Amino acid sequence: MLDGRRVLLVISGGIAAYKSLELIRRLKDRGADIRCVMTANAQNFVTPLAVQTLSGNKVFADTFSLTDEHEIGHITLARDCDLVVVAPATANLLAKMAHGLADDLASTALLVTDKPILVAPAMNFRMWGHPATRANMATLKERGVHAVGPNAGMLAEGESGLGRMAEPAEILAAVEGLLSSGPLRGLKALVTSGPTFEPIDPVRFIGNRSSGKQGHAIASALARLGAEVTLITGPVKLPDPPDMKVVHVETAREMLGAALGCLPVDIAVCAAAVADWTVSNASKEKRKKDPNGPPPAIELAANPDILATLSEKGSARPRLVVGFAAETENLLTHARAKLERKGCDWIVANDVSPSSGTFGSDFNTVHLITQGGVEDWPRIAKADVAERLAWKIADSVKGKP
Ligand code: C5P
Prior knowledge:
The protein has 401 residues and is an alpha/beta fold. It contains 15 helices and 22 strands.
Protein backbone atom coordinates (compact mmCIF):
# COMPACT_ATOMS: atom_id res chain seq x y z
CA MET A 1 0.00 0.00 0.00
CA LEU A 2 1.01 3.60 -0.55
CA ASP A 3 -1.05 5.05 2.30
CA GLY A 4 -0.22 8.69 2.75
CA ARG A 5 2.74 8.60 0.34
CA ARG A 6 2.85 11.77 -1.75
CA VAL A 7 3.47 11.51 -5.47
CA LEU A 8 3.99 14.49 -7.79
CA LEU A 9 2.89 13.31 -11.23
CA VAL A 10 4.24 15.30 -14.18
CA ILE A 11 2.23 14.70 -17.34
CA SER A 12 3.90 15.78 -20.55
CA GLY A 13 2.43 15.99 -24.02
CA GLY A 14 2.08 12.63 -25.71
CA ILE A 15 -0.83 10.45 -26.69
CA ALA A 16 0.09 8.13 -23.80
CA ALA A 17 -1.15 10.91 -21.48
CA TYR A 18 -4.53 9.17 -21.54
CA LYS A 19 -2.94 6.27 -19.64
CA SER A 20 -1.91 8.70 -16.91
CA LEU A 21 -5.56 8.99 -15.95
CA GLU A 22 -5.61 5.25 -15.23
CA LEU A 23 -2.31 5.61 -13.36
CA ILE A 24 -3.81 8.32 -11.13
CA ARG A 25 -6.75 6.04 -10.35
CA ARG A 26 -4.50 3.13 -9.47
CA LEU A 27 -2.22 5.27 -7.30
CA LYS A 28 -5.28 6.65 -5.49
CA ASP A 29 -6.63 3.11 -5.00
CA ARG A 30 -3.34 2.25 -3.27
CA GLY A 31 -3.79 5.20 -0.91
CA ALA A 32 -1.30 7.66 -2.45
CA ASP A 33 -1.87 11.42 -2.36
CA ILE A 34 -1.31 12.83 -5.84
CA ARG A 35 -0.61 16.28 -7.13
CA CYS A 36 -0.31 16.73 -10.88
CA VAL A 37 1.65 19.11 -13.06
CA MET A 38 0.68 19.25 -16.73
CA THR A 39 2.73 20.75 -19.54
CA ALA A 40 0.95 22.95 -22.07
CA ASN A 41 1.10 20.12 -24.64
CA ALA A 42 -0.28 17.56 -22.19
CA GLN A 43 -3.43 19.67 -21.99
CA ASN A 44 -3.99 19.00 -25.70
CA PHE A 45 -4.29 15.28 -24.93
CA VAL A 46 -6.16 15.20 -21.61
CA THR A 47 -8.01 17.98 -19.86
CA PRO A 48 -6.90 19.46 -16.54
CA LEU A 49 -10.47 18.92 -15.37
CA ALA A 50 -10.19 15.15 -15.85
CA VAL A 51 -6.84 15.09 -14.04
CA GLN A 52 -8.17 17.27 -11.24
CA THR A 53 -11.32 15.17 -10.83
CA LEU A 54 -9.41 11.89 -10.64
CA SER A 55 -6.55 13.15 -8.45
CA GLY A 56 -8.88 15.09 -6.17
CA ASN A 57 -6.34 17.93 -6.17
CA LYS A 58 -5.86 21.17 -8.05
CA VAL A 59 -3.81 20.75 -11.22
CA PHE A 60 -0.69 22.89 -11.64
CA ALA A 61 0.18 24.09 -15.10
CA ASP A 62 1.62 27.58 -15.07
CA THR A 63 4.78 28.68 -13.21
CA PHE A 64 3.62 32.25 -12.87
CA SER A 65 0.07 31.76 -11.71
CA LEU A 66 -0.11 34.19 -8.81
CA THR A 67 -2.64 32.20 -6.86
CA ASP A 68 -0.58 29.05 -7.15
CA GLU A 69 2.55 30.93 -6.11
CA HIS A 70 0.55 32.29 -3.21
CA GLU A 71 -0.86 28.94 -2.14
CA ILE A 72 2.15 26.80 -2.96
CA GLY A 73 5.35 27.88 -4.68
CA HIS A 74 6.90 25.75 -7.39
CA ILE A 75 9.82 24.86 -5.11
CA THR A 76 7.50 23.62 -2.40
CA LEU A 77 5.41 21.79 -4.99
CA ALA A 78 8.49 19.94 -6.28
CA ARG A 79 9.86 19.07 -2.86
CA ASP A 80 6.74 18.43 -0.83
CA CYS A 81 6.38 14.84 -2.03
CA ASP A 82 8.06 11.44 -1.67
CA LEU A 83 8.51 10.74 -5.36
CA VAL A 84 8.20 12.57 -8.68
CA VAL A 85 6.77 10.47 -11.51
CA VAL A 86 6.97 11.68 -15.12
CA ALA A 87 4.39 9.80 -17.21
CA PRO A 88 4.44 10.09 -20.10
CA ALA A 89 7.97 11.42 -20.37
CA THR A 90 8.39 12.76 -23.92
CA ALA A 91 11.73 12.93 -25.71
CA ASN A 92 11.51 16.72 -25.31
CA LEU A 93 11.02 16.66 -21.54
CA LEU A 94 13.76 14.04 -21.10
CA ALA A 95 16.09 16.30 -23.11
CA LYS A 96 15.20 19.28 -20.93
CA MET A 97 15.82 17.23 -17.79
CA ALA A 98 19.18 16.00 -19.06
CA HIS A 99 20.28 19.54 -19.93
CA GLY A 100 18.82 21.37 -16.95
CA LEU A 101 16.33 23.52 -18.86
CA ALA A 102 13.53 25.08 -16.87
CA ASP A 103 11.20 26.99 -19.16
CA ASP A 104 7.88 25.84 -17.74
CA LEU A 105 6.51 24.53 -14.47
CA ALA A 106 7.12 20.84 -15.27
CA SER A 107 10.80 21.26 -16.18
CA THR A 108 11.32 23.76 -13.34
CA ALA A 109 9.84 21.33 -10.81
CA LEU A 110 12.09 18.56 -12.16
CA LEU A 111 15.16 20.77 -11.83
CA VAL A 112 14.37 21.93 -8.33
CA THR A 113 13.16 18.71 -6.73
CA ASP A 114 15.32 16.89 -4.21
CA LYS A 115 13.19 13.75 -4.36
CA PRO A 116 13.69 10.55 -6.41
CA ILE A 117 12.39 10.76 -9.96
CA LEU A 118 10.79 7.94 -11.98
CA VAL A 119 10.28 8.49 -15.71
CA ALA A 120 8.02 6.47 -18.01
CA PRO A 121 9.27 7.38 -21.51
CA ALA A 122 6.80 7.34 -24.41
CA MET A 123 7.62 8.32 -27.96
CA ASN A 124 8.08 7.15 -31.53
CA PHE A 125 10.61 4.32 -31.74
CA ARG A 126 12.91 6.41 -33.95
CA MET A 127 12.98 9.16 -31.34
CA TRP A 128 13.69 6.58 -28.61
CA GLY A 129 16.52 5.07 -30.67
CA HIS A 130 18.02 8.44 -31.67
CA PRO A 131 21.54 8.95 -30.28
CA ALA A 132 20.40 12.20 -28.63
CA THR A 133 17.69 10.43 -26.61
CA ARG A 134 20.05 7.54 -25.83
CA ALA A 135 22.62 10.01 -24.50
CA ASN A 136 19.99 11.92 -22.50
CA MET A 137 18.71 8.69 -20.92
CA ALA A 138 22.27 7.62 -20.08
CA THR A 139 22.87 11.01 -18.40
CA LEU A 140 19.64 10.77 -16.42
CA LYS A 141 20.30 7.18 -15.32
CA GLU A 142 23.79 8.14 -14.24
CA ARG A 143 22.22 10.86 -12.08
CA GLY A 144 20.02 8.25 -10.41
CA VAL A 145 16.78 8.91 -12.30
CA HIS A 146 14.72 5.70 -12.37
CA ALA A 147 12.98 4.54 -15.52
CA VAL A 148 10.18 2.12 -16.33
CA GLY A 149 9.68 1.09 -19.96
CA PRO A 150 9.23 1.93 -22.73
CA ASN A 151 7.74 -1.28 -24.06
CA ALA A 152 7.76 -2.68 -27.56
CA GLY A 153 4.51 -2.76 -29.49
CA MET A 154 2.21 -0.91 -31.83
CA LEU A 155 2.64 2.86 -31.52
CA ALA A 156 -0.09 5.44 -31.98
CA GLU A 157 1.20 6.42 -35.42
CA GLY A 158 0.60 2.88 -36.70
CA GLU A 159 4.26 1.83 -36.59
CA SER A 160 5.57 -0.71 -34.17
CA GLY A 161 8.75 -0.66 -32.10
CA LEU A 162 10.17 0.28 -28.71
CA GLY A 163 8.44 3.42 -27.50
CA ARG A 164 5.08 2.56 -25.94
CA MET A 165 4.71 3.90 -22.44
CA ALA A 166 4.82 1.19 -19.76
CA GLU A 167 1.34 0.10 -18.67
CA PRO A 168 -0.14 1.83 -15.59
CA ALA A 169 0.23 -1.46 -13.64
CA GLU A 170 3.97 -1.54 -14.42
CA ILE A 171 4.42 2.10 -13.44
CA LEU A 172 2.48 1.45 -10.24
CA ALA A 173 4.74 -1.54 -9.46
CA ALA A 174 7.82 0.64 -10.01
CA VAL A 175 6.36 3.35 -7.75
CA GLU A 176 5.65 0.76 -5.06
CA GLY A 177 9.17 -0.60 -5.42
CA LEU A 178 10.62 2.86 -4.88
CA LEU A 179 8.31 3.90 -2.05
CA SER A 180 7.66 0.75 -0.08
CA SER A 181 10.14 -0.31 2.53
CA GLY A 182 9.71 -3.90 1.25
CA PRO A 183 10.35 -7.15 3.11
CA LEU A 184 13.65 -7.69 1.28
CA ARG A 185 15.05 -4.21 2.01
CA GLY A 186 18.70 -4.53 3.08
CA LEU A 187 19.17 -7.94 1.41
CA LYS A 188 21.20 -8.69 -1.71
CA ALA A 189 20.04 -11.01 -4.46
CA LEU A 190 21.61 -12.33 -7.61
CA VAL A 191 19.53 -13.69 -10.48
CA THR A 192 20.84 -15.43 -13.58
CA SER A 193 18.65 -15.23 -16.67
CA GLY A 194 18.56 -15.94 -20.39
CA PRO A 195 20.66 -18.41 -22.34
CA THR A 196 24.42 -18.67 -22.64
CA PHE A 197 26.09 -18.76 -26.04
CA GLU A 198 29.20 -20.88 -26.48
CA PRO A 199 31.22 -19.86 -29.54
CA ILE A 200 32.16 -22.36 -32.24
CA ASP A 201 34.04 -19.59 -34.02
CA PRO A 202 33.60 -15.79 -34.08
CA VAL A 203 30.31 -16.02 -36.00
CA ARG A 204 28.72 -19.30 -34.83
CA PHE A 205 27.68 -20.55 -31.44
CA ILE A 206 25.71 -23.25 -29.64
CA GLY A 207 23.15 -22.12 -27.14
CA ASN A 208 19.93 -22.91 -25.33
CA ARG A 209 16.44 -21.65 -26.05
CA SER A 210 15.52 -19.03 -23.47
CA SER A 211 13.78 -15.66 -23.77
CA GLY A 212 14.92 -14.56 -20.29
CA LYS A 213 11.35 -13.44 -19.53
CA GLN A 214 11.00 -15.52 -16.37
CA GLY A 215 14.44 -14.69 -14.94
CA HIS A 216 14.07 -10.97 -15.68
CA ALA A 217 10.61 -10.95 -14.09
CA ILE A 218 12.02 -12.60 -10.95
CA ALA A 219 14.79 -9.99 -10.73
CA SER A 220 12.16 -7.22 -11.02
CA ALA A 221 9.90 -8.81 -8.41
CA LEU A 222 12.78 -9.14 -5.93
CA ALA A 223 13.74 -5.50 -6.56
CA ARG A 224 10.14 -4.41 -5.96
CA LEU A 225 10.25 -6.12 -2.58
CA GLY A 226 13.29 -4.00 -1.75
CA ALA A 227 16.21 -6.35 -2.52
CA GLU A 228 19.40 -4.96 -4.00
CA VAL A 229 19.47 -7.06 -7.15
CA THR A 230 22.22 -7.95 -9.58
CA LEU A 231 20.84 -9.52 -12.75
CA ILE A 232 23.37 -11.53 -14.74
CA THR A 233 21.95 -12.14 -18.17
CA GLY A 234 22.98 -13.97 -21.29
CA PRO A 235 22.00 -12.58 -24.71
CA VAL A 236 18.26 -11.71 -24.70
CA LYS A 237 16.02 -9.31 -26.59
CA LEU A 238 14.61 -7.75 -23.41
CA PRO A 239 15.47 -4.27 -22.17
CA ASP A 240 17.40 -4.03 -18.90
CA PRO A 241 14.91 -3.87 -16.01
CA PRO A 242 15.12 -0.66 -13.96
CA ASP A 243 16.41 -0.37 -10.42
CA MET A 244 19.06 -3.05 -10.45
CA LYS A 245 22.58 -3.69 -11.63
CA VAL A 246 22.58 -5.65 -14.89
CA VAL A 247 25.65 -7.58 -16.01
CA HIS A 248 25.65 -8.83 -19.61
CA VAL A 249 27.54 -12.03 -20.34
CA GLU A 250 27.71 -14.47 -23.19
CA THR A 251 29.24 -17.74 -22.03
CA ALA A 252 28.69 -19.96 -18.99
CA ARG A 253 32.21 -19.21 -17.76
CA GLU A 254 31.51 -15.47 -17.93
CA MET A 255 28.23 -16.04 -16.09
CA LEU A 256 29.99 -18.00 -13.34
CA GLY A 257 32.66 -15.29 -13.04
CA ALA A 258 30.00 -12.57 -12.74
CA ALA A 259 28.05 -14.62 -10.16
CA LEU A 260 31.12 -15.25 -8.00
CA GLY A 261 31.95 -11.54 -8.31
CA CYS A 262 28.58 -10.69 -6.67
CA LEU A 263 29.17 -12.73 -3.53
CA PRO A 264 28.27 -12.44 -0.74
CA VAL A 265 24.55 -12.32 -1.45
CA ASP A 266 21.58 -13.41 0.65
CA ILE A 267 19.55 -14.89 -2.18
CA ALA A 268 20.56 -16.55 -5.46
CA VAL A 269 18.03 -17.50 -8.13
CA CYS A 270 19.52 -19.36 -11.09
CA ALA A 271 16.93 -19.07 -13.83
CA ALA A 272 19.41 -19.02 -16.73
CA ALA A 273 19.36 -21.76 -19.35
CA VAL A 274 23.09 -22.37 -19.18
CA ALA A 275 24.62 -24.39 -21.99
CA ASP A 276 25.88 -27.66 -20.52
CA TRP A 277 28.84 -27.78 -22.84
CA THR A 278 31.35 -25.39 -24.24
CA VAL A 279 33.17 -25.93 -27.54
CA SER A 280 36.69 -26.93 -26.56
CA ASN A 281 38.03 -26.66 -30.11
CA ALA A 282 36.47 -23.25 -30.84
CA SER A 283 38.29 -21.51 -33.63
CA LYS A 284 39.61 -17.94 -33.44
CA GLU A 285 38.89 -17.48 -37.15
CA LYS A 286 35.66 -18.28 -39.00
CA ARG A 287 35.68 -21.94 -40.01
CA LYS A 288 35.59 -22.36 -43.77
CA LYS A 289 33.19 -24.73 -45.50
CA ASP A 290 34.94 -27.42 -47.48
CA PRO A 291 32.36 -28.50 -50.13
CA ASN A 292 34.20 -31.76 -50.74
CA GLY A 293 35.28 -32.67 -47.24
CA PRO A 294 33.34 -33.78 -44.13
CA PRO A 295 31.75 -31.14 -41.87
CA PRO A 296 34.10 -30.00 -39.10
CA ALA A 297 33.96 -31.92 -35.81
CA ILE A 298 32.88 -29.95 -32.78
CA GLU A 299 34.44 -31.11 -29.52
CA LEU A 300 32.53 -30.40 -26.37
CA ALA A 301 33.68 -29.98 -22.78
CA ALA A 302 31.45 -29.67 -19.70
CA ASN A 303 30.68 -26.16 -18.50
CA PRO A 304 30.91 -25.24 -14.81
CA ASP A 305 27.58 -25.58 -12.99
CA ILE A 306 26.81 -22.15 -11.54
CA LEU A 307 23.89 -23.32 -9.38
CA ALA A 308 25.90 -26.20 -7.88
CA THR A 309 28.90 -23.94 -7.31
CA LEU A 310 26.83 -21.33 -5.46
CA SER A 311 25.13 -24.06 -3.42
CA GLU A 312 28.40 -25.40 -2.07
CA LYS A 313 30.08 -22.09 -1.28
CA GLY A 314 30.56 -22.85 2.45
CA SER A 315 30.46 -19.68 4.54
CA ALA A 316 29.84 -17.56 1.41
CA ARG A 317 26.77 -19.65 0.50
CA PRO A 318 23.67 -17.52 -0.02
CA ARG A 319 21.01 -18.09 2.64
CA LEU A 320 18.64 -19.33 -0.04
CA VAL A 321 19.64 -20.85 -3.39
CA VAL A 322 16.85 -21.46 -5.91
CA GLY A 323 17.31 -23.37 -9.15
CA PHE A 324 15.09 -24.17 -12.11
CA ALA A 325 14.44 -27.49 -13.77
CA ALA A 326 13.13 -27.23 -17.30
CA GLU A 327 12.13 -30.74 -18.34
CA THR A 328 10.23 -32.29 -21.21
CA GLU A 329 9.26 -35.53 -19.36
CA ASN A 330 9.10 -37.01 -15.82
CA LEU A 331 9.17 -33.44 -14.55
CA LEU A 332 8.96 -33.99 -10.79
CA THR A 333 11.29 -37.00 -10.67
CA HIS A 334 13.99 -35.16 -12.60
CA ALA A 335 13.45 -32.00 -10.58
CA ARG A 336 13.74 -33.77 -7.21
CA ALA A 337 16.94 -35.47 -8.37
CA LYS A 338 18.29 -32.07 -9.43
CA LEU A 339 17.58 -30.58 -5.99
CA GLU A 340 19.70 -33.33 -4.39
CA ARG A 341 22.44 -33.32 -7.00
CA LYS A 342 22.97 -29.57 -7.08
CA GLY A 343 22.55 -29.01 -3.34
CA CYS A 344 20.20 -26.05 -3.75
CA ASP A 345 17.30 -25.27 -1.39
CA TRP A 346 14.42 -25.03 -3.85
CA ILE A 347 13.75 -26.05 -7.41
CA VAL A 348 11.16 -24.41 -9.61
CA ALA A 349 10.19 -27.13 -12.05
CA ASN A 350 8.55 -26.31 -15.35
CA ASP A 351 7.41 -28.36 -18.30
CA VAL A 352 9.06 -27.08 -21.46
CA SER A 353 7.87 -29.81 -23.80
CA PRO A 354 6.75 -28.29 -27.12
CA SER A 355 3.08 -28.94 -26.22
CA SER A 356 3.39 -26.82 -23.03
CA GLY A 357 3.95 -23.63 -25.08
CA THR A 358 6.24 -22.26 -22.35
CA PHE A 359 9.15 -21.07 -24.50
CA GLY A 360 8.87 -17.40 -25.36
CA SER A 361 5.35 -17.29 -23.90
CA ASP A 362 4.23 -14.89 -21.18
CA PHE A 363 2.73 -17.79 -19.20
CA ASN A 364 4.25 -20.61 -17.20
CA THR A 365 3.05 -23.63 -15.22
CA VAL A 366 5.46 -24.45 -12.42
CA HIS A 367 5.86 -26.67 -9.37
CA LEU A 368 7.85 -25.42 -6.40
CA ILE A 369 9.91 -28.19 -4.82
CA THR A 370 11.30 -27.56 -1.35
CA GLN A 371 12.48 -29.88 1.43
CA GLY A 372 8.87 -29.62 2.68
CA GLY A 373 7.26 -31.06 -0.45
CA VAL A 374 5.82 -29.96 -3.77
CA GLU A 375 3.48 -27.05 -4.48
CA ASP A 376 1.66 -27.20 -7.80
CA TRP A 377 1.01 -23.69 -9.09
CA PRO A 378 -1.67 -23.00 -11.70
CA ARG A 379 -0.83 -21.72 -15.21
CA ILE A 380 -0.24 -18.02 -14.56
CA ALA A 381 1.67 -15.16 -16.18
CA LYS A 382 5.45 -15.31 -15.81
CA ALA A 383 5.22 -11.95 -14.00
CA ASP A 384 2.85 -13.57 -11.47
CA VAL A 385 5.12 -16.62 -11.04
CA ALA A 386 7.88 -14.11 -10.28
CA GLU A 387 5.75 -12.15 -7.80
CA ARG A 388 4.65 -15.30 -5.99
CA LEU A 389 8.18 -16.69 -5.86
CA ALA A 390 9.57 -13.38 -4.58
CA TRP A 391 7.04 -13.32 -1.72
CA LYS A 392 7.86 -16.99 -0.89
CA ILE A 393 11.53 -16.05 -0.83
CA ALA A 394 10.79 -13.07 1.44
CA ASP A 395 8.81 -15.28 3.84
CA SER A 396 11.60 -17.85 3.88
CA VAL A 397 14.62 -15.59 4.41
CA LYS A 398 12.89 -13.53 7.09
CA GLY A 399 14.32 -14.82 10.33
CA LYS A 400 16.64 -17.28 8.57
CA PRO A 401 20.24 -16.67 9.70
O1 C5P B 1 21.25 -29.31 -15.16
P1 C5P B 1 20.19 -28.36 -15.64
O2 C5P B 1 20.70 -27.43 -16.71
O3 C5P B 1 18.92 -28.99 -16.03
O4 C5P B 1 19.87 -27.48 -14.35
C1 C5P B 1 19.03 -26.38 -14.37
C2 C5P B 1 19.36 -25.44 -13.25
O5 C5P B 1 20.76 -25.35 -13.04
C3 C5P B 1 18.92 -24.04 -13.56
O6 C5P B 1 18.65 -23.39 -12.33
C4 C5P B 1 20.15 -23.45 -14.22
O7 C5P B 1 20.18 -22.04 -14.14
C5 C5P B 1 21.25 -24.07 -13.43
N1 C5P B 1 22.49 -24.32 -14.16
C6 C5P B 1 23.62 -23.58 -13.88
N2 C5P B 1 24.80 -23.84 -14.52
C7 C5P B 1 24.88 -24.81 -15.45
C8 C5P B 1 23.75 -25.57 -15.77
C9 C5P B 1 22.56 -25.28 -15.11
O8 C5P B 1 23.53 -22.67 -13.03
N3 C5P B 1 26.03 -25.03 -16.06
